[in-house]
């Protein structure tokens, strides 16, 4: 946290302390009548609200410059309102008028004005963040289209080269052709998955329909069996395994099972358990491998920021996370005491 952020949030807290102390002193003094007591109690609440708000702003993910913007609005409300009240008080006294409890009355007015200005500042920051987010999404969308265009083109070139090399009399050349063809097919599959997930993320509204997760899981296992002929995958289910999702949920399930098969123990064994738990349906995928590295989990769960030096090794976990979250679900990571790793998809039950 920077010094500027501390000073900005501290100025908001100082406003709360000032309002709260003046109102609290007036409240404790008593003899104010019902209205006076209610106003003093309101002032105390305003002061506490400023203190709580400053703490929340200080610990939030709002950028420091935006936090200072909110603090600036607060300062504007305090200074302008206090100046206007001082002029009014001076005018009344110059004309022989009197004001009852000027400090208390003025503090309450300043507190209300500052509250309004802080809310204006928060709305201003939200507007700026929304605008910046729209720009970032536009840039990301353009970059996504460019990368996917190059990815699709490269996949087509590799498949073409693979087809040209396969079927040759030289076994070495034929083997290279098959490998090149396989890489091209993998790239094409990744392109298709990314396209599906991108549409899912960018959609304004996601329709959720009942999906039988048991059937989806078994279909994913069957598709992966040819790539992992020696692996054993056990799928068990309890109760009703239908959840509110859509066809792309198969991408999440397939990616997680494939990840377990690739990094599982030797021999590779994967257990998939589907269970209804209250209003949720879970798909728990467990393997006996070394487990998902802590940094990898922290990046995917958002506990650690993605930077150029710290990034995930593959798209599988990210694709799964994005698909599951698009259907208002969650992805959970646990490490059983007897070793291995368990990744659990949690979705709303269909009924």
Tally of extended strands?
7
Q: Quick one: overall form?
A: elongated
CATH class descriptor name of the largest domain: Alpha Beta
Topology as H/E string?
HHHHHEHEEHEEHHEE
| Relative strand content | 5-15%
| Strands side by side in the biggest sheet | 2-4-5-7-6
As for the number of domains, it is: 3
Structural class of the helix and strand makeup? alpha+beta
Biggest pleated-sheet summary = 5 strands, mixed
Radius of gyration: 31 Å
Low-confidence stretches: 308-312
- The whole-number mean of residue pLDDT values reads 82
Corresponding CATH architecture of the largest domain: 2-Layer Sandwich
Distance between the termini: 46 Å
- Quaternary structure annotation: single chain
Number of helices: 9
Say which CATH homologous superfamily of the largest domain is assigned.
Histidine kinase-like ATPase, C-terminal domain
Bin the helical content.
55-70%
Q: Per CATH, what is the topology of the largest domain?
A: Heat Shock Protein 90
Characterization of this structure:
The protein is 65% helix and 13% strand. It is of the alpha+beta class. The protein has 3 domains: 3-134, no CATH class; 139-202; 209-348, Histidine kinase-like ATPase, C-terminal domain (Heat Shock Protein 90, 2-Layer Sandwich), CATH 3.30.565.10. Strands 2-4-5-7-6 form a 5-stranded mixed sheet. A two-stranded antiparallel sheet has the order 1-3. The radius of gyration is 31 Å and the shape is elongated. It starts with a helix and ends with a strand.
């Amino acid at each position: 946290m920077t010094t500027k952020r501390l000073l900005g949030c501290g100025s908001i807290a100082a406003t709360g302390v000032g309002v709260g102390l003046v109102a609290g002193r007036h409240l404790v003094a008593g003899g104010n009548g019902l209205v006076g007591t209610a106003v003093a109690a309101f002032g105390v609440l305003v002061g506490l609200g400023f203190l709580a708000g400053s703490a929340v702003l200080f610990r939030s993910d709002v950028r420091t410059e935006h936090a200072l913007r909110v603090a600036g609005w607060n300062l504007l409300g305090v200074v302008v309102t206090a100046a206007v009240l001082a002029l009014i008080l001076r005018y009344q006294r110059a004309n022989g008028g009197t004001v009852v409890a000027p400090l208390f009355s003025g503090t309450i007015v300043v507190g209300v004005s500052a509250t309004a200005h802080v809310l204006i500042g928060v709305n201003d920051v939200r507007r700026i963040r929304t605008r910046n987010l729209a720009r970032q999404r536009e840039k990301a969308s353009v970059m996504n289209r460019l990368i996917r265009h190059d990815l699709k083109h490269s996949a087509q070139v590799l498949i073409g080269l693979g087809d040209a090399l396969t079927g040759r009399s030289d076994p070495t050349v034929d083997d290279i052709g098959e490998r090149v063809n396989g890489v091209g097919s993998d790239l094409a599959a990744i392109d298709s998955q990314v396209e599906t997930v991108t549409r899912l993320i960018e959609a304004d509204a996601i329709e959720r329909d009942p999906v039988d997760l048991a059937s989806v899981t078994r279909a994913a296992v069957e598709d992966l069996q040819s790539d992992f002929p020696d692996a054993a995958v056990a799928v068990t289910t309890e109760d009703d395994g239908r959840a509110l999702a859509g066809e792309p949920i198969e991408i999440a399930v397939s990616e997680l099972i494939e990840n377990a098969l690739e990094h599982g123990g030797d021999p590779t064994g994967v257990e998939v358990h589907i269970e209804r738990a209250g209003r949720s349906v879970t798909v728990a995928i467990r393997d006996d491998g070394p487990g998902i590295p802590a940094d990898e989990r922290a990046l995917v769960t958002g506990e650690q920021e993605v930077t150029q030096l710290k990034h995930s090794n593959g798209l599988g976990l990210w694709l799964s996370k994005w698909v599951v979250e698009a259907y208002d679900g969650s992805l959970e990571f646990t490490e059983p005491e007897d070793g291995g790793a368990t990744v659990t998809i949690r979705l709303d039950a269909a009924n």
